UniProtKB/TrEMBL annotation:
<dbReference type="Pfam" id="PF13679">
    <property type="entry name" value="Methyltransf_32"/>
</dbReference>
<dbReference type="InterPro" id="IPR025714">
    <property type="entry name" value="Methyltranfer_dom"/>
</dbReference>
<dbReference type="InterPro" id="IPR052220">
    <property type="entry name" value="METTL25"/>
</dbReference>
<dbReference type="InterPro" id="IPR029063">
    <property type="entry name" value="SAM-dependent_MTases_sf"/>
</dbReference>
<protein>
    <recommendedName>
        <fullName>Methyltransferase domain-containing protein</fullName>
    </recommendedName>
</protein>
<feature type="domain" description="Methyltransferase">
    <location>
        <begin position="101"/>
        <end position="234"/>
    </location>
</feature>
Length: 404
């Protein structure tokens, strides 16, 4: 893949729509609606519940506006990435106590490593937790493996697990309690350097992915799966490549948060739950704007799941008490208010469904920039889909190799 051409094409498509994807809809409402073409909003209003769910999956039913159809078609084409095929089947004993998601990820990571790391003899895993990947790699490939994590309790569990399952001949797995940080770390930095060394980071949170890439410049092989892009900061963490710096997009905290929403595989139940959560949050925002305009945007915060299952009044009362606000309304009046703004809260929902269509493209931009950085450092680089997004939505893997 020509990463530079792909990044340039994506930024060309995304840049004109930055007022739509770089800002919060809710915080700027109702003014934020102006970023959405009226024919897009009219089309979204025409959808029934099935059509809304289709839109959430990136599928346009009926007769969508040509500009929307053309844009989404281009974004889907530019974010289509090859898949890594194959799994390394694990036995029941090897996966005992592991979740279906963890088992799925390990089987695919092991298959990827098996076909690309014949010259590797040592490896390091960032955020290795209990060391499941390290244990399996040490036994499957015969590597000396260092699993780094800052959580000593998790590592203690991993040691106990290792003791229970230790084969004859022992393991070459070592746990290191440490935080992987930018700057010199004499204790762990040598583990990342050497043509026979692999550096692995699965679901490295926010800027930790970039820390891994910087520390791994001397490694023979690098595997990184990022997540939590909302914890990044621009321009510190984007762009990171020279080419990306020449083709930047205006990433804001709101845009970075949007990159984590690229999930098109919600079940009916998950979609219904999302709509209910949005309905109560949006109604609460409209209520606070009406009753407490001097407060500006009021953050409702995450509420217990049960509050979204009951009446709006119960949810609103809980949030108001948490914020120390008194609206001077009875529960009946709070529920009546929610009913009165349903047309507006649906409009907010539809704008969010349209804005979410940019999420995957923005995520791919971040990863293309990282891929180009690795290429600029002299690696041969791949960007592949590795996990089933229904199980592991952040499923894009950066693979970089210098060869033997």
């Amino acid at each position: 893949m020509d990463f530079q051409a792909r990044l340039e094409a994506l930024t060309h498509q995304l840049r004109p729509w930055s007022p739509l994807w770089s800002r919060s809809i809710l915080q700027g409402w109702p003014g934020s609606a102006a970023a959405f073409p009226e024919d897009w909003r009219a089309y979204a209003r025409s959808l029934d519940e099935t059509g809304e769910r289709q839109l959430d999956q990136g599928v346009l039913v009926g007769a969508p506006p040509s500009s929307l159809s053309a844009l989404l078609g281009s974004l889907q084409e530019l974010t289509a990435l090859p898949w890594h095929e194959g799994i390394h089947p694990l036995t029941v004993a090897q996966t005992q106590g592991l979740s279906a998601k963890k088992t799925h990820e390990l089987e695919r990571v092991l298959a990827l490593l098996a076909s690309r790391t014949r010259f590797i003899h040592q490896a390091v895993d960032i955020g290795g937790g209990m060391g499941h990947l390290a244990r399996l790699c040490a036994r499957t490939f015969g590597w000396t493996f260092h699993s780094i994590d800052r959580d000593a309790a998790l590592q203690d569990k991993g040691r106990r697990w290792l003791t229970k399952t230790r084969p004859l001949g022992g393991d070459t797995l070592h746990f290191i309690q440490a935080s992987v940080e930018d700057g010199d770390q004499p204790r762990i930095d040598p583990l990342f350097s050497g043509r026979d060394r692999a550096s692995i980071g699965l679901h490295t949170c926010g800027p930790l992915a970039l820390t891994q890439l910087r520390k791994s410049q001397g490694a023979g092989f690098v595997l990184n799966v990022g997540c939590c892009y909302d914890k990044l900061e621009a321009p510190r963490d984007y762009p990171v490549s020279r080419f990306g710096a020449a083709h930047p997009l205006p990433f804001t905290p709101h845009a970075l948060a949007l990159t984590t929403r690229g999930r098109h595989h919600k079940t009916e139940e998950e979609f219904a739950r999302m709509k209910q959560v949005y309905a109560w949050r949006f109604a609460f925002d409209l209520l606070s704007k009406q009753r407490f305009p001097e407060r500006g945007f009021v953050r409702a915060g995450d509420a217990p799941r049960t509050l979204y299952d009951g009446p709006f009044a119960v949810y609103a009362r809980d949030r108001l008490e948490r914020l120390g606000l008194e609206p001077g309304m009875t529960d009946a009046e709070l529920d009546a208010f929610e009913v009165s703004v349903r047309a507006e809260t649906r409009e907010l929902l539809l704008c969010h469904l349209l804005r979410d269509r940019f999420a995957r493209a923005l995520e791919v931009v971040l990863l293309l920039d990282r891929a180009i950085l690795l290429a600029e450092l002299g690696f041969q680089v791949e960007l592949l889909q590795l996990f089933d997004p229904r199980l592991s939505p952040r499923n894009l893997a950066l693979i970089a190799s210098r060869g033997a």
